[in-house]
Amino acid sequence: xxxxxxxxxxxxxxxxxxxxxxxxxxxxxxxILPKFVGLTIFVHNGKKHIPVYVSENMIGYxxxxxxxxxxxxxxxx
Length: 77
What we know:
The protein is α+β, with helices and mostly antiparallel strands.
Protein backbone atom coordinates (compact mmCIF):
# COMPACT_ATOMS: atom_id res chain seq x y z
CA UNK A 1 0.00 0.00 0.00
CA UNK A 2 1.35 3.43 -0.98
CA UNK A 3 1.45 6.08 1.74
CA UNK A 4 2.41 9.73 1.56
CA UNK A 5 2.05 12.07 4.52
CA UNK A 6 -0.52 14.83 3.98
CA UNK A 7 1.78 17.43 5.59
CA UNK A 8 4.55 16.55 3.14
CA UNK A 9 2.19 16.94 0.16
CA UNK A 10 1.10 20.30 1.53
CA UNK A 11 4.75 21.41 1.80
CA UNK A 12 5.39 20.29 -1.80
CA UNK A 13 2.43 22.36 -3.02
CA UNK A 14 3.60 25.39 -1.00
CA UNK A 15 7.08 25.01 -2.52
CA UNK A 16 5.68 25.07 -6.07
CA UNK A 17 3.59 28.15 -5.19
CA UNK A 18 6.72 29.91 -3.89
CA UNK A 19 5.57 30.18 -0.27
CA UNK A 20 8.53 28.24 1.18
CA UNK A 21 12.21 27.98 0.16
CA UNK A 22 12.99 24.35 1.11
CA UNK A 23 11.19 21.18 2.20
CA UNK A 24 12.06 19.61 5.55
CA UNK A 25 10.33 16.40 6.65
CA UNK A 26 10.35 13.82 9.42
CA UNK A 27 8.14 11.39 7.47
CA UNK A 28 10.60 8.70 6.37
CA UNK A 29 7.77 6.26 5.56
CA UNK A 30 6.28 8.40 2.79
CA UNK A 31 6.42 7.05 -0.74
CA ILE A 32 8.12 9.16 -3.42
CA LEU A 33 5.60 10.34 -6.01
CA PRO A 34 6.25 11.65 -9.56
CA LYS A 35 5.46 15.15 -8.25
CA PHE A 36 8.67 15.05 -6.15
CA VAL A 37 11.09 14.56 -9.09
CA GLY A 38 13.70 17.30 -9.31
CA LEU A 39 13.28 18.49 -5.72
CA THR A 40 15.73 18.35 -2.85
CA ILE A 41 13.98 17.20 0.32
CA PHE A 42 15.68 17.41 3.71
CA VAL A 43 14.88 14.10 5.49
CA HIS A 44 15.44 13.63 9.22
CA ASN A 45 17.63 10.63 10.03
CA GLY A 46 17.20 10.74 13.81
CA LYS A 47 19.95 13.27 14.43
CA LYS A 48 19.93 15.82 11.62
CA HIS A 49 18.31 16.53 8.25
CA ILE A 50 20.02 14.93 5.24
CA PRO A 51 19.43 16.47 1.77
CA VAL A 52 17.98 13.95 -0.69
CA TYR A 53 17.77 14.89 -4.38
CA VAL A 54 14.82 13.02 -5.94
CA SER A 55 15.28 11.54 -9.43
CA GLU A 56 12.98 9.49 -11.66
CA ASN A 57 14.54 6.20 -10.55
CA MET A 58 13.37 6.79 -6.96
CA ILE A 59 9.63 6.84 -7.71
CA GLY A 60 7.79 4.22 -5.65
CA TYR A 61 10.47 3.89 -2.96
CA UNK A 62 10.28 5.29 0.57
CA UNK A 63 12.04 8.58 1.33
CA UNK A 64 13.79 7.07 4.35
CA UNK A 65 15.66 4.57 2.16
CA UNK A 66 17.87 7.38 0.85
CA UNK A 67 18.63 9.00 4.22
CA UNK A 68 20.93 6.61 6.06
CA UNK A 69 20.72 6.44 9.84
CA UNK A 70 23.90 4.53 10.64
CA UNK A 71 27.45 5.63 9.97
CA UNK A 72 30.18 3.04 9.51
CA UNK A 73 32.89 3.29 12.18
CA UNK A 74 36.20 4.84 11.24
CA UNK A 75 39.35 3.45 12.80
CA UNK A 76 42.29 5.60 13.82
CA UNK A 77 45.54 5.08 11.95
